[in-house]
Every structure is written in C-alpha cells, then in structure tokens.
Amino acid sequence: MAEIQLSTPQKRKLRSNSTPSPMQSSSAKWKSPRRCVKDCPKSPMQGNFGDKTINMTKSPVKKRLPESFLQKPMWNPRDVEQLNAVKEALHVSTPPATATVVCREVEYNRVLDFCKQSVEQDKAGSLYICGCPGTGKSLSIEKVKEVLVNWANESALQTPDLLSLSCTSLSNTSDIFGKILDKIHPRRKANGSMSPLQYLQKMSSQKQQSTGRKMMLIIADEMDYLITKDRTVLHDLFILTTFPFSRFILIGIANAIDLADRFLPKLQSLNCKPAVITYRAYSKDQIIPILQQRLEAFPYTVFQPQALELCARKVASASGDMRKALSVCRSAIEMLEGEIRDSIYSLQLPSLKMRLSDQQRGGACDKSPIQESGVVRVDHVAIALSKAYKSPVVDTIQSLPQHQQIILCSALKLFRGKKKDATIGELNISYVDVCKSTLIPPVGIMELSNMCRVLGDQGILKVGQAREDKLRRVTLKVDEADITFALQGIRLFRNYLQQL
C-alpha cells in the first residue's frame, strides 16, 4: 500500500511538471502510421489540420465521382459557342466520337464479325437485329459499315456494295426488290416478263451471272413494316441469301423483340433462319457513361454528377431509351438557359443597375446569381423529366385507388416482352402474385372484373366480351412507359417494378 501511495503523487507531479519527461519527449517524436502518411512532404495536404485532414480525404462522394467532373471548371452557359457546342453534342443525330458504341461493344462486335466473315469467305447470310427504340441498333450498324469498308481496303479484299433503306419509305413492300436491283444495275429497265424478285433469284441461281459481282450488304431498317404488311415479301427477302450463288448479306432491324418469334419458325422451315442479336434496354449504369462520353471532350463541367444520375435512373426505369435521356439533358440545359436569361433581365432593371454600380465601387460584385447557377443542377433535370414523362395518363394512374394500381402493375408484369393481351383469369393470377409480394390482401375475381371495367371506362384498359368474366380479354390502351413512370414514384411499387 505504501508503494502505491508514493507512486501516485509522483505520477501527478510528472504530469503537472512543465519540463518534459523522457517519456514525453519520446512520445512527441513518435507518430502513428496514419499521421505519418498525412505528414509526408509530398502529400498535397499539409499543416496541422488534426482530424479534419483525415475526414477531408475520406469523402466517399468525391471518390466515386469521375475525376473529369471534379477537376474541370464550370462552363459558362452565357457563352453562345459553348452553349451550342454542348447542345450539339447531346443531340440524337450527333454520332459519338468513339470507334465503337459505348455499352454495346458485345453486340457491335458480333455484327462486325458476321459481316467480316461473310466478306472474307464470299458467303451470303442473314442477320436479324431486334430491340426497343433508342437502344443503339442503328448507331451500331453505322459504325459497322464504316469499319467494314476500312477493314476490307486494309485487307486487300473486295469492298462490298452497301445498300441502306427504311422499309417504311416503300410505297409497296415488294418495291424492296426493285431497290436492290437498281443498286446492282442502275440503268436497267423493267422487263415485263420478269419481276425484280424473279431477276434477283435468277442471278443468285446461276454461276455465270454471279461471277465477278461484289458482295452486297443490305441493311433493311424498320423491318416491322414488312412483317406486319406482307410476310411473303419478308420470306422472299431472307430466301435470297440461301441461293447457291447468292452475293447478298442481309441485316434486318426491327424494334419489337417478340416479332422474331412470329416469323422465325417459318424461316427455319424454309431453311433460311437468320442469326438473331437482341439489343436490351439501357440500364442506369449504361446511360451514365454514355452521357459522360458525350461530355468528356469539353474542358468544363456542364452537369452536376447527381443530375446525370437522376436522369439515367428515371429513363432506365421507364423505358431505357437513350434518345429520351439525351432529350431530357437538352431540355435541362434550355431551362438553365432560361433561368440565366431571366437573371440578366432582372439585372437590367434601373434599381438593380444602381445597386450594381454601388457594389462595383465597393469591389463586392465578384459573385452574381448567374455565376452561381452556371451548371445544370438536379432541379433542372427533375423538371425536364417531369415534362418528358408527365401526361394526363400519368396523373390519372397516380390518382387511382390502390387495387386498381395493382391491376395495372400486374398487367405490366403479364405483358412485358410477351403477349399484348390476356384473359381476366390470367390477369387475376398475376394480380394475386403482386398482392402477395406487397403484403396486401387481394380481392375476388368478380371485384377484379368490375375494377377492369372501371379502368376500361377511363380509357386505360380495353376489356372484351365473353360469356364468363374470367374469359374476357384485357388489353392495355396506354403506353407501358406511362404506367411505369406513374407507379415508380409510389413506394409500394418501386422495388417490384425494378425486378420486371
């Protein structure tokens, strides 16, 4: 006990003594490994910041954001040249500067390899490309055409002839064969005894007529038109690639994914089934780098990163249409432009002019409202998104009772990527599944049928006639994107819609 009592005051004396003890002097020289890193002479942040230094370097937000968005200065939207350049870069018709299509490298390489193999082996073939609008189909094909010609020249191969046409521009679906024949023989007059299709079939069947002719890459965009109007023309077009001496490389492009299921079985029976490449809707993680790629060439920051993320998230959840994302971004820029225009107008008022001159005398006019708003913010994009997707249909759906909203969510699940109509009995099965996942007790099938009638009266559903309610067929009369956008703002459906 005596030793303890003697040691205690001794420790207190050492702590209160102003002269540093050997232990104190040694501890002053010792530094923790974490602080040693911060005190390195090469470290960009020096000084006695204490714990604040560590907290500043641990910002999780800045680490996740691209360096190009953090290091570049904000742009000046009052500069007309900068404004027009950014708008042009975000225009749908402006092709990206990259050699390939961003986030579509796999699909692009498959199409390019198919074309290269056909040219290299002098082998005819067909390819069918399908996907929703705005998923990069046409853009990929434009890049493929450009790269294919350069590759053929570098490889000392015969460059194929290129024919691109939109099927919707044809007054008659069979005119597509006349377009192909005009590309081969531009000055050839029509022969009354032989149609263009018959002449192409004869050319592809005889070796002497095909010898010396170039391979021809035919790109038929909007092929949906041929499928819906005259399926015989579609079959004859693909059959052209199966003749023994055919020189045609056919690439068909269509928007609807399910159309392949309608005509592919018939083509398979005719031994002319094409290879199929599907372009899926863009996800949020794909839309963001595409937007960044279009903006990275500028030496300034145009958008808040959070604003681009909001645009990508909303567009991906609604449709995945990249054209819509570009349109929203341009609309947000126009809102910033209008905001700056209003600020300039307000500064030109006489009272504000006098106040501004007073500030200039005092040297306190460095910051203006215009300079503070020199970047596209989240609120600009939110308003642009609301204008892009908001409609009377969206307002109506958001004001519906909960069970009617569940019915529409069930219809989305039932129709997405599949058939476009179903019976009330089939809809009821999907409805019960949604109710179980959202922990809401379902109603009976009779009450479900009555609610479908109500939705039919409001123009959202179309309900057919049948002897029994459960056999009535139900069809959506509004765009699926409007339903998705209306329901995604409701927490009950948010997680469920992301799984569809």
UniProtKB/TrEMBL annotation:
GO terms for cellular component: nucleus. GO terms for molecular function: ATP hydrolysis activity; DNA replication origin binding. Residues 408-487 form the Cdc6 C-terminal domain. It comes from the Eukaryota. Keywords: Cell cycle, Cell division, DNA replication, Nucleus. Its main location: nucleus. Residues 1-37 are annotated as: Disordered. Pfam families: AAA_22, Cdc6-ORC-like_ATPase_lid, WHD_Cdc6. Residues 16-27 have a biased composition (Low complexity). It is found in: Nucleus. InterPro entries: AAA_22, Cdc6/18, Cdc6_C, Cdc6_ORC1-like_ATPase_lid, ORC1/CDC6, P-loop_NTPase, WH-like_DNA-bd_sf, WH_DNA-bd_sf. SMART domains: Cdc6_C. GO terms for biological process: cell division; DNA replication initiation; mitotic DNA replication checkpoint signaling. Belongs to the disease resistance NB-LRR family. This is Cell division control protein.
